[in-house]
Structure formats: structure tokens, C-alpha cells
Design brief:
By secondary structure, the chain is of the alpha+beta class. The protein is built from eight helices and 17 strands. The chain has helices spanning 27-37, 55-60, 94-101, 119-130, 149-160, 178-188, 300-313, 338-352; strands spanning 14-21, 67-75, 78-86, 106-112, 134-140, 168-169, 202-203, 221-226, 233-241, 252-254, 267-270, 288-294, 318-324, 328-335, 356-358, 367-368, 374-375. Strand 8 (221-226) and strand 9 (233-241) form a beta hairpin. InterPro entries: EF-4, EFG_III/V, G_TR_CS, P-loop_NTPase, Small_GTP-bd, T_Tr_GTP-bd_dom, Transl_B-barrel_sf. Keywords: GTP-binding, Hydrolase, Membrane, Nucleotide-binding.
């Protein structure tokens, strides 16, 4: 519980990285070992997917929400601050991956030594490659009976043009060679680019609503948010700021009356010290649409509030007001896939105690008729 002096970590000793992989290749297990080795959490057999904090993640055994953690590691006498983001592997949550990569300078690409390269391995590699991030290939599960790391190394070299000698063979479950991964992060991933003389500029890459904080008093420092898409400025009082130095990742607590006041992708800066906005994120493209209605219309406002708070945490869901003769007033929601829709509905029930009617999912399509008329 001791107070950390964050001024000990200049930009040169900061590394921001994500762990990316196909589903079930061992990202969260590797994150557990990294947290243990750096002393962020104590070593115990009960440490399994500690960054998967949501109830739905625990029940399904999958990562749904990207989670960040700060690790402190001493390498060759120098103290380093490593900011890690553990990302989902399922295609339905790929927006979480692309959003996380915008806050990083490098990635650990985890590949299962048994399964080899799979669909999301390729998709996530190209997300990192397009973002021009340093890529550290890691072959996991070498302790399995059917593991064939040599075959996987050749796959990585053939598909991604990464030499086989750059691959690190590990067992995240047993902790084999995981220390090498930490050393490689420091050697290969560059520190964030920034100038300490410039005014404060930060990217909002995640946000959440806290049930237990209640109303945060409107005092403290005055910050502004600038949205790239609209160039609209919104200023807000901030009571707690947990980042003070260039290149660091942190959080702030603001006394906001509406959850829509700050959006993911906005640029944060000090009041009356304007800056050029950061690029933000590409908006997600929904693939599956479903209607959502309260079981009882008297619950409409409560459900509206719950939807606003949950979409603050999952900004890839699109929400449009809708109404049905049979079901009354509701919304038409857009999701990235069927699993995404199931998980969103489950989170509404578990985190906000909301029972809803969800219509059968559909996708919009266009048909070219013989008369050359276009319908939607």
C-alpha cells in the first residue's frame, strides 16, 4: 500500500504493450505469470485469469473486455514501468483489440504450440502490423504432449516474415521462460514518443461507470475533452488524477452528470490549453442487429440508464431508439456477432439486474432485383 513515486519512471523506462492471440491460446495465463514475476500479485495456485474481472468472463472462461495493469520490473539495475493490456481473442471482441493497440508501442503475439496459427492470430497480427507496432512472437503451451514448436516457428516465419530465432518458447501455465518475455519487451518495444515541454494531451482509451462512488463532488482541476469527429469541446471538473508524467497510463475520476460527456477516443487536455486532437478510433461496424425491450414498460427509464452505462464500457454496440406495436418502446442494437450479443445481454442482467426481451437477431441485406431496383 506504499505510495509510489511515479517521477522515478521517465519516458525512456516506460513500455506500453498488449497481449494478442487467437481465442484460448493462453493470453490471460501469460498475463497472470507476468503479474506474478513482477510482484504485482502474490504467487498462488488460485491465480487464474486474474484480469478477467467480469462475472460473464469467469463463467464462460473467455476474455470479453480488455484489461490494463501496470507492472514494475528491474532489469540490469534500471527500474521499468510496463503497462500491459490483456485483450480478448474472439472475433466478436476485435474492436477491444484495435482500441487497445492505439495505446501501445508493441505487442506480444501468443501462438499455441499445439494448434499453430489460427484465424484471429492472423487478424490480430495485421492489426498490430498496420499500427506499426513492434511484435514479439511467443509460442505457448510447449509443455503439452503434442506440442510442436518447430512447426509453429516455421509457420510464423512463412506467414509473418518473422525469423524463427526471434520466437520465444514458453509455458505460461508452468512459468517456463516467461522471464525472457519481460526482457524482450524492454529490449524490443520502444518507449512512447512524447515531449515533456508540450502541454498535457492524453487519449481516452477506456471508461467505466462506478456504482459505488455515488456523486463525485465538482471540485479539483478543470480539464477539457475534444472529440476529433465533431471538434466539440466539453469541460469537466476532475477530482482524482492518477497520471502525472509524460508517457504514463493512468485514470481520472470526473464529476460527470451524464455518461455521454466523454467518449472513448476523445483527447483530454487542460482547460484553456488547447491541443491538436489525437486520431481517435475507427468506429466499429455492427454485423448483427436485434431489438431490445423492457419486460415491463415502467422499467423503460431504468433500462435506458443501464444501456447508457454499459455502452460507455462497450462502445462497439450501436443503439437506436425503436418501437414495436406488440412490445412497446425499446431500442435496436447493433453487435459485432452473436456471442457479443449474448455477452452484452448477460452483462445487463448480472451488472444492472435488468430483464429484457431480446428479439431474434437479424442482419440487413441488399438484393439486386431483375428490375435493377435496389431494396434494403
Amino acid at each position: 500500500q506504499e505510495k509510489l513515486d511515479m517521477s522515478m519512471y521517465p519516458v525512456e523506462s516506460i513500455r506500453n504493450f498488449s497481449i494478442i492471440a487467437h481465442v484460448d491460446h493462453g493470453k490471460s495465463t501469460l498475463a497472470d505469470r507476468l503479474l506474478e514475476i513482477t510482484g504485482t500479485i502474490s504467487k498462488t495456485d488460485r491465480n487464474k485469469q486474474v484480469l478477467d474481472k467480469l462475472q460473464v468472463e469467469r463463467e464462460r472462461g473467455i476474455t470479453v473486455k480488455a484489461q490494463s495493469a501496470s507492472l514494475f520490473y528491474n532489469h540490469e539495475g534500471i527500474n521499468y514501468l510496463l503497462n500491459l493490456i490483456d485483450t480478448p481473442g474472439h472475433v466478436d471482441f476485435s474492436y477491444e483489440v484495435s482500441r487497445s493497440l492505439s495505446a501501445c508501442q508493441g505487442v506480444i503475439l501468443v501462438v499455441d504450440a499445439n494448434e499453430g496459427i489460427q484465424a484471429q492470430t492472423v487478424a490480430n497480427f495485421y492489426l498490430a502490423f498496420e499500427a506499426q507496432l513492434s511484435i514479439i512472437p511467443v509460442i505457448n503451451k510447449i509443455d503439452l504432449k503434442n506440442a510442436d514448436p518447430e512447426r509453429v516457428e516455421k509457420q510464423i516465419e512463412k506467414l509473418f516474415d518473422i525469423p524463427t530465432n526471434e520466437c520465444i518458447r514458453i509455458s505460461a501455465k508452468q512459468g517456463t521462460n516467461v522471464e525472457k518475455v519481460l526482457q524482450k519487451i524492454i529490449e524490443k518495444i520502444p518507449p512512447p514518443q512524447c515531449n515533456t515541454a508540450d502541454p498535457l494531451k492524453a487519449l481516452v482509451f477506456d471508461s467505466t461507470f462506478d456504482h459505488y462512488r455515488g456523486v463525485v463532488a465538482n471540485r479539483g482541476e478543470l480539464f477539457e475533452f475534444l472529440a476529433k469527429s465533431t471538434n466539440a469541446k466539453k469541460h469537466v471538473h476532475v477530482t482524482t488524477v492518477l497520471f502525472r508524467y509524460a508517457g504514463q497510463v493512468g485514470y481520472l475520476i470526473a464529476g460527470m452528470k451524464e455518461v455521454t460527456e466523454a467518449q472513448i477516443g476523445d483527447t483530454l487536455f487542460l482547460y484553456k490549453q488547447p491541443v491538436e486532437p489525437l486520431p481517435g478510433f475507427k468506429s466499429a461496424k455492427p454485423m448483427v442487429f436485434a431489438g431490445m425491450y423492457p419486460v415491463d414498460q415502467t422499467e423503460y427509464n431504468n433500462l435506458k440508464s443501464a444501456l447508457e452505462r454499459l455502452t460507455l464500457n462497450d462502445s462497439s454496440v450501436t443503439v437506436h431508439r425503436d418501437s414495436s406495436l406488440a412490445l412497446g418502446a425499446g431500442w435496436r442494437l447493433g453487435f459485432l456477432g452473436l456471442l457479443h450479443m449474448e455477452v452484452f445481454n448477460q452483462r445487463l442482467e448480472q451488472e444492472y439486474n435488468m430483464s429484457v426481451i431480446l428479439t431474434a437477431p437479424t442482419v440487413p441485406y441488399k438484393a439486386v432485383l431483375s428490375s435493377a431496383k435496389l431494396i434494403k
